[in-house]
Amino acid sequence: MKNTTKRRLLIGWLLLTILAGIVYVTGFDETVVYAYRDWKHDRWLKEWLKTAEPTNAPNAQRLEKAVTADYLGEQKDVDIFLPRGYNDNDSVRYPVLYFYDGDNLFDQIIAEGSEWEVDEVINRIDSAGGPACIVVGIQSGVNRSAEYKPYPSNQVKEDGEVFGKQHAEWYARGLKQWVDTNYRTRPEPAFTGIGGCSLGGLMAHYSLMTYPDVYGIGIIFSPSLWVDEAQSLSLIDEHPDLSKARIFLNSGALETPIVEGSERLRDRLLAAGLPKEQLYFDIEPDEGHWHATWRKGFAKAYPWVLE
Predict the structure, then answer these.
(1) Domain housing 164
(2) What CATH number corresponds to the domain at position 246?
């Protein structure tokens, strides 16, 4: 046992020494650091999946290749939650919350251990007599960084073009039409929300400001305003009527730059006419830029966003 522990420590030190040598010789190369991080994560994930079990509620499921993203010509899986009793009464229609990074919503296996427990929260509220809704999410593609940037960034440049605008357009005009056609929704902006975290939070803000005829509710977690903060804030001035919007804005206390950006976003929204009582600004103590922050955030956002 002791020899095994010593051997693991030695291997760990050797890997760190090799990594330090690469950084010393070539300078700080984020691709090397990220490759090492991903390698460590993949090792952990492989072991974790051996014993992990699905955590999605029976009324939350993944529909494989259910909808086509026309601008890509690519079929997408849909992660969807339907309220309990959805099939019991054909006359009831429901609000819909759409999310970028839909793989984080319901199941720890699909989310690789980091689900937000959206299904548990809504089922609990519903059982207590609160509002129920439909939730729809799409997992990001292989190139998430380009897919979730509506405009390029001077800080982190892509090898090719970013296509967040096309993706947001598809969500608002293509995905929503598919959902409204196949499910009993309340399609008006007052009953339609858009959410996401990090770059997905930036996309949620962009979508909310760009498509006021589609979305009236925003659930914005730790938005990556650093992509282009000036352009992100200027979108607010183009919104025709923020008095009807309802926005939940959340970040972790440990992610200081994100908190500061979120505060500027909050102030700009209020100055542009968003009523104070229709903005929920949440800072999670002792949390950072990770899924625990957004899981706690959703538990506060719901059902406030539908009230």
Answers:
(1) 60-304
(2) 3.40.50.1820
